[in-house]
Write a structure and sequence with these properties.
Rossmann fold, 14% strand, 325 residues, binds N-carbamoyl-L-aspartate, alpha/beta, 11 helices, 2 domains, five-stranded parallel sheet, four-stranded parallel sheet
């Protein structure tokens, strides 16, 4: 893998390969000293042109656990505010010696553009409404482990699992990447949203769609709630949040109806009282904090896959056994 801009960059079988590699990283995270020298001497630049808490911090933690050096770029006190172009900013950072750029930007396609300007690896940490591949990998890993770790050999460890992704699909890069990851692994996905919050065409999406959450609630194994992305609701697409909540949120009434084995997921940050009206800690099976925990290991796997010496992960994985000195 040269870049990770969308799951397509992983190639066939790539999601399954990353699930296996993530297992090694989870083991490292459980050690008393959760750090290995695998990426010593490599530099990872965190370029977040849009707000982030968990994604930025988990990439940062992941890089440090692999002993990479990190640089953090933040827009608010950068020369972008003095009129410097994105290209000049990237070239300036690259001149200091960067092996990977982790990029979040509010415009779709920016990671592809940056990949044309630099010889470093580019990891997409979320571009506009478009893609968020590491979120999809951490969601896939979280589901796979929570549902009993079906064998990876046939490439479809989520076969037979029915996932409802609920909410603002139209503006969600998480939904786009998750649909790719879940369906590649064999799951069946149903999108649940008001028609105004679905993309204009679902032709290329391997999914079904409905605007009636109550009709599918009893048929799904996983309820994946999306954040209502109010910052992206340019037009008035909703009659009102109260109406949305009554039809699409996980209210206490719906939570009481859920079979206890149904997994509830959310990428965070949550809008309590909008898409979720219950305390996740009180749900029988919330995976929301597991998603955050697994985010670090998945991002270690991605950085390792991109940057480990020689680029051949199979020959370098054994080096993960090394303790940090
Ligand atoms: C998501 C994002 O930024 O796309 N958050 C995240 O990375 N955990 C989802 C969101 O903001 O709704």
């Amino acid at each position: 893998m040269r870049h990770l801009r969308s799951l397509d960059d992983l190639g066939p079988g790539g999601v399954v390969r990353l699930l296996g590699l993530t297992d090694h990283m989870v083991d490292i995270g459980r050690r008393a000293m959760p750090k290995v020298p695998a990426l010593r001497g490599r530099t990872v630049a965190m370029c977040f042109f849009e707000d982030s808490t968990r994604t930025r911090l988990s990439f940062d933690t992941a890089a440090k656990r692999l002993s990479a050096d990190t640089m953090t770029f933040s827009v608010s006190n950068s020369s972008l505010n003095k009129g410097e172009s994105l290209r000049d900013t990237i070239e300036t950072l690259e001149s200091m010696g960067v092996d990977a750029f982790v990029v979040r930007h509010r415009s779709s396609g920016v990671p592809w553009q940056i990949a044309r300007w630099t010889s470093a690896a580019v990891v997409n940490a979320g571009d506009g409404w478009h893609q968020h591949p590491t979120q999809a990998l951490l969601d896939a890993y979280t589901l796979w482990t929570s549902l009993g770790r079906a064998p990876l050999e046939d490439g479809r460890p989520l076969a037979g699992v029915r996932v409802a992704i609920v909410g603002d699909i139209k503006h969600s890069r998480v939904a786009r990447s998750d649909v790719d990851a879940f369906t590649q692994l064999g799951a069946e996905v149903v999108l649940v949203a008001p028609p105004t919050l679905l993309p204009p065409s679902l032709e290329a999406w391997p999914v079904t769609a409905t605007d009636r959450l109550d009709d599918v609630l009893d048929t799904v194994d996983v309820l994946y709630l999306l954040r209502m992305q109010r910052e992206r609701l340019g037009e008035s697409l909703l009659p009102g949040l109260r109406e949305y909540t009554s039809r699409f949120a996980l209210t206490p009434e719906r939570a009481a109806r859920l079979r206890p084995e149904v997994r509830v997921m959310h990428p965070g940050p949550m809008n309590r009282g909008v898409e979720i009206g219950v305390d996740p800690a009180r749900l029988a099976h919330s995976l929301i904090l597991d998603q955050v925990t697994n985010g670090v290991a998945v991002r270690m796997a991605v950085l390792f896959d991109l940057l480990a010496q020689g680029g051949d992960t199979s020959t370098t994985v054994s080096a993960l056994g090394d303790r940090h000195d």
